[in-house]
Amino acid sequence: MTETAYLAAAVIVSALVTWALRALPFLFLRRLRHSPVLQEIGAALPVGVMTVLVLHTVHEVPPLDPARSIPVLVGLVATAGLHLWRGNALLSIGVGTGLHVLLASTLPGVLA
Amino acid sequence: MHTDPTPTVDPPVIGTAQGPSAVTAPVPVVGAADGGFLAGLRDATPAGLAAVPLGLAFGVLVAQAGLDWWWGALFAAVVFAGSFEFLLLGLVTAGAALPTIALTALLVNVRHVFYALSFPLHRLPGAAKIYGTFALTDEAWALTASPQAQRWRAARILAIQGGFHLAWVASVTVGALTGALVPDWIVGLDFALTALFIVLGIDAARARRDLPAPFVAVACAAIAGLLVPGGMLVGGIVLFVAFLLVRIAVRRRRAARSAATEERMRASSGVSGERGRVVSGVAGEPGSASPGVGDDRP
């Protein structure tokens, strides 16, 4: 498979799975709207999924390698702290990512 | 203090709503307030602005991965699942197999299944339903989750979705086009994704005042990651759903028990059950949980 065909297939597969997840539930879930269990899971799930996703995106960072772990730690604390304090998504993501980029780009050189 | 917002107790709010008729909550009398296309664009503006840095970051990552800029635009326009696009980029640069990609898409996006519970799809005419479901992102769902949205006009809902879609594709495209200008030694833009998840998680936890949930989720992810190497994402979410099911079962049993106790007390002492409930609710004594009220305290 060529690079282009592979990428196109990956995009199509991803789009189909995602659209199916978004569209198919309307066929049966509308009738289950009154189910308190589904209501509760639907409402409580995002917190859990987001938390797991945060950990998933950083779990391969070696904690004992300061050049890689310090930027992530600073980014996590800055983003969460700013968001708890100000509640401004743009600010939290911007500052958190900015600090991470700054440290991740410079620390390896400084510490080496 | 502990005004537990658990929706378990009040299914009627959305639960019994058969379309818009049952949502009798505050309906603005001013018809103009329920605008169309422009109102939708206005609704979408904050989310669209928030998507700009993230879209730029994703575009730059596409360029840094060595892909042509239009792949970024294609990812953004066709897949249109912000967070998953970052993961997809990592998968394709690692040459992951298509079934792996499909499975990851399934697991990361399975949360969308629950969006059908509240998204006002019934407001969209025939063909527009296709776009409405295709573009049912976290942001589109969050912006249309209010009871009032059940009455919005199709133009407003589609403007929210289309406006956000446009902002996302444009940001990614600009990022991918200019990404080559970003020097190679600048790394770490992918943290924008982590930051997005943090922000969405905090917002979700705030909206529900569900304090234990993030801590339980951390434990779920840690356990899953330790038990199954590489299974943190899937295992963590599965464990978390299991936790939710157990919590619901425990709350129900507790609610049933306290309802029975109250019934007995009312029968024996003649005290008005209604009054007793109000008093215990105000006092907030742990032992006198009001019937059916989920207790979010650990």
Automatic annotation (TrEMBL), chain A:
Annotated keywords: Membrane, Transmembrane, Transmembrane helix
Pfam families: AzlD
Segments traversing the membrane: 6-29, 89-111
Protein name as annotated: Branched-chain amino acid transport protein
Gene source species: Arenivirga flava
From TrEMBL, chain B:
Localization annotation: Cell membrane
Keyword Cell inner membrane: no
Listed Pfam families: AzlC (PF03591)
Protein keywords: Cell membrane, Membrane, Transmembrane, Transmembrane helix, Transport
Biased composition (Low complexity): 267-285
InterPro entries (UniProt xref): Brnchd-chn_aa_trnsp_permease (IPR011606)
Domain of life of the source: Bacteria
Transmembrane segments: 44-62, 97-117, 157-179, 185-204, 211-227, 233-250
UniProt-annotated stretches for the region Disordered: 1-20, 262-298
GO CC annotations, alphabetized: plasma membrane
Topological relation to the membrane, as annotated: Multi-pass membrane protein
Gene Ontology biological process terms, A to Z: L-valine transmembrane transport
Protein's UniProt keywords contain rRNA-binding: no
UniProt family annotation: Belongs to the AzlC family.
Protein name: Branched-chain amino acid ABC transporter permease
Species this chain originates from: Arenivirga flava
